[in-house]
């Protein structure tokens, strides 16, 4: 199994090219199931989750061409199965996003229940309830969601009592081919939802309101193919910016989307970073200073993203002052805290908050990655810790960060991937 060996590094400096967003690309690739025509996607990041998605689509019978350089073409003219098996679903929760498209296009779907994961239980009740309101018959048996519909799904007014990114995406895709109008109330407003809506619109879907909490979709009988470029990854961008901030460095993220990062940039400014943005780049300059501790509370977009929470816990560990990071989305998303404590961080967990005393002198240690963003927080800690940090179980990191060691290395970090086997 691979691990990352990270040594205390100089302040990060230079330019890093941001990849396409994992959380935009995953639902976008699923749109191929909604059409007979070929779909071409560009700026797709080279990630384990993308490979899992193409493997899943292949298993269903979708023609997959991975042309390299971020280009993937998919053709779902003929499927040979409507079953997403446990073996793939268990490695990537976003597999649940085949449910809406399969039901809408083929009238049936069997999708393994994703099960719990490190950051929380993550149920899919909102996905199922919404599809049932659209006329689907759904049973959960032997760990599988078995869904079918006679004829087309029917448009419905669907109120979601929690804001869910995945449920909004699944229902938006299903509604694109349903009969009549669907209204999604209390919908998620994340930039990845807007990206998905833009792609569906290019395919001929009729959608208004994406990016607000009230999305209207008028179903059409069929959709065409697409040629769509994936949105830049705001979480990858934020992760590099935090890494630069804790190191006291100066970096420029290129091919980025600054308008998707307001909450994160605001916290970095409060931490003392000088931030400058162009149309597709963001520059952070700490001017050699130690960051100031910040108070962070995660919430659905446009508030502070839960996927940046762990990275800010690391920032607060070494910052001046006491910082409180409160997690409101997932019930168990502080698995990085005990690992950071092993590196000498002074953090107290109080209910759903991590209170960091700041000015911790971190020391390198063997640490274990427990989920994707927890892994990122440990990598950042390793860059500033005295000595050497070994991060194991980095398959989590490979789900969501493209060539992270090369990109950080390009900014001056000392980070190497080594194989333990
Ligand atoms: C692939 C992808 O895009 N993943 C992102 C997506 O995950 P994902 O779409 O799974 O997250 P959701 O927005 O659905 O989850 C938000 C909250 O709603 C709860 N919930 C969700 C669905 C449901 O049917 N019932 C229910 O109770 C979840 O347990 C969680 O507490 O949004 C999360 C919240 O921004 C991000 O952390 C993930 O990186
Ligand atoms: C939690 C995340 O992803 P997923 O929903 O795919 O588990 C993430 O991207 O931080």
Automatic annotation (TrEMBL):
Membrane-spanning ranges: none
Record key words, sorted: Cell cycle, Cell division, Cell shape, Cell wall biogenesis/degradation, Cytoplasm, Peptidoglycan synthesis, Pyruvate, Transferase
Pathway membership, UniProt: Cell wall biogenesis; peptidoglycan biosynthesis
Sites of 2-(S-cysteinyl)pyruvic acid O-phosphothioketal modification: 117
Residues annotated to bind UDP-N-acetyl-alpha-D-glucosamine: 93, 307, 329
Gene3D superfamilies in the cross-refs: Enolpyruvate transferase domain (3.65.10.10)
Enzyme class, UniProt record, top EC level: transferase
Binding site for phosphoenolpyruvate: 22-23
InterPro entries named among the record's database cross-references: Enolpyruvate_Tfrase_dom, Enolpyruvate_Tfrase_sf, MurA_subfamily, RNA3'P_cycl/enolpyr_Trfase_a/b, UDP_GlcNAc_COvinyl_MurA
Cell location: Cytoplasm
Enzyme Commission code: 2.5.1.7
Keyword Cytoplasm: yes
Family named by the database record: Belongs to the EPSP synthase family. MurA subfamily.
Name of the protein: UDP-N-acetylglucosamine 1-carboxyvinyltransferase
Biological source species: Salinimonas profundi
